[in-house]
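Chapter summary example.
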Amino acid sequence: MSTATTDFPALREPALSGQTVVIIGGSAGIGLETARRASAESAQVILTARNQARLEQAAREVGALSTATFDANDSASLARFFDSLPVPIDHVLVTAGSPHYGPLLEMDADQMRDAVTDHMVLELEVARYARDKMRAGGTLLFMSGTGGRRIRPGLGILATATAALPPFTAALALELAPVRVNLIAAGFVDTPLSASLLGDGLEARREQLRAMLPIGRVVGPADVAALAVHIMTNTALTGATYDIDGGQQFAG
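The structure predicted for these 252 residues follows.
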């Protein structure tokens, strides 16, 4: 007489157990969703944002280790934040910042400099202040977009700024090794920021994308968060740009 046995799969260890994730711009949208996912993978999460009330609400929701309210584009505030961190950190996601639009010939010299350099300056500052706090194998993770890759009226300097970020990321990855540096390039993501920018046109844009995109749906913050956490946990990834737009750049 034989005895039947049943094999149960071993429980998976949380992917970020014992690690600390810092999210700059973590009170809403992609930043908040990444905080949720990182927390679910047992990471200790540190959130920063400019809006204190929204930041406190997000921190309660994800059980954040700590928070800090400041403008990430203020270099002195950014330096003080990293200097004050009480523990070594493993990963930093930067979602702060927004693209610049407008006809080129309507931009003055200062606006042009800001549009080209804003993201790179912020990312360079984060890299400079974070590197001595980070464990080897951790990652700095930045955000860009796929929409700016097409030259179109009204986008102005956006295409130039977008094109500069992948080689900038790769160069920074060489300098910061063994800390890893990667870039996520997203298309339209259905976030509160998108809603505020589109206003009454939001639902029409959603319908357009559902009909147009090969995936048949709109990309949401959870999609980007899943990619962000994967990049954090896969230690073979550095110096690369990862597109996530549901095929938007190919569909039109």
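To summarize the output: The longest strand covers residues 134-145.
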